[in-house]
Structure prediction request, 551 residues.
Amino acid sequence: MSTSSEMPAPDATNASSKAKGPTKAAVIRQLNGAEETSQERLMKKQLPAWVISGAVHVAFISFLILIFGLTNSEAKMSDKLITASVEKPEEEEAAKNLTNEDPGIDSELEASVNVERIDEQVVEAAVTSDPIGAPNSESINQATYAAPGAVTENATGGFMGTEGNLITGAGGGGGLTAGGGLDGRSGATKDRLLREGGGNAASELAVARGLAWLAKKQKGEGASRLGYWEYDGEGAHKDDVIAATGMAILPFLAAGETHKSGKKYQQVVSRGIEFLKSRLGAEGHFYNPPKRAAGMYSNAIGAMALIECYGMTKDPTLKPFAQSAVNFIQKAQAPDGSWGYSSQSPGDTSIVGWQIQALHSAKISKDLVVSDAVIKKANKFLDLVSTGSNKDKYGYRDSAGARPGTSLTAVGLLCRYYEDGWGPNNPGMIDGVKGLMNRPPRPGSMDMYYYYYATQVVHFFEGKSWKVWNEGEAAGTGMRDLLLKAQDVGANQANYGSWPADTGTVGRSCGRVGTTALSLLTLEVYYRHLPLYKRNDGGGLKELDRNAGGE
Prediction:
């Protein structure tokens, strides 16, 4: 920095003053600051240009960043959209529940599986005694339920159930180690189980047709929220709407349809569940219209529908009804461990089979309470009616007449599997399955009661025996394909998708409705219940199958 003007030399100032005469005193102004250096002068000259240039460059770079940033963002968004457009149908497809029917029947029915991924072969592996999952006793809430009130008739003319009394017990019990249970009924797990178990697109198509027919057979008045089914067989069973409704609902549940969600039949299931709830007395006993107490067969089948629906949805409003139905089954057990036609009366292996299925469904729901004592008593009854060194054959009310390869033997083996922990390594199960394999599925002999139970037993046994049972020694001769051939798919639209009443007990008593329901459950065996035991690639498969007659 410099002063405001050049300072005159001292000598020149004095000379001037003398020459002009007296003058005012000179005033000198001086500004504070240091003298400017050469560097500072350079900066002063160049800084404006640098600032301007820098600003231009910054603006240009910012513009480039903005342009490329938007481009990359759009590219990423495009990638996301492309990914979504490719992957979303796959995810949705895995969650679908039903297979497309023939056009003209119901073209809106969704597909449950990717049929291109379905394999015709059953995956074989060795057996291990390792259970899937862990005992569910620790997961059970042991808090006491409120005591039920008196039976009260509701506005629909039925009986509204309330929470039942607590049945004490750990809930695991009976040697059972509960697996995933009901978790294989939809999505990718269903696809995998269907493929690995030997199901295919044709079997799922048959299931879709059968469900469509069952849905059309549901009865109910107008817009009523209640819906029920009736058997179309002979005799008094035609009035047993509790058993018919429960049995008809079970195939929908197995297909992944519930009262809370479903691609097509949510309302059908909801109306059926509401009907069962309306007919459940406060003590957990079902009543057929108008107020006739249902038998133990009906109680078990109706209870299974409520229990499985609760297990799949965890609907808290449904839990008290399911628990109350479970409580009644347990209270109705006879002293010898069986169940009869009425509460606490001695019964037989056939009635026991339905109660055990209901109790097993309650166990795998994880938070419904089942008594260990009830299961132990039931196993003692099974000991009484079984024969053979390994208890592989079962009779009706005692061991007399127990033979291999019968419906009662199949019932007994399934009960042992569910409640006594008999896995594929158990000698009784090995011998029992060998007996069932001596009476394989045959055309013209569609005894669905036997096939319903035996198919489940052999399916859980797995290995070579299951492959033969499901697919047959020759193509088209196994359980799967015999059911496909027997299904009514002719020009008669009234019966399209159903199965004709079989020549056994189910056909005579329950007609086409009962036969169709059991046929569907048999075709849904691949994914209806997850196995309690798994096979792997370890040793032992050949020896196991050899002992069971599989090789």
Remarks:
- The CA atoms of residues 460 and 531 lie 6 Å apart.
- Residues 1-35, 69-180, 537-551 have pLDDT under 50 and may be disordered.
- Residues 119-380+454-547 form a domain with the Glycosyltransferase fold (CATH 1.50.10).
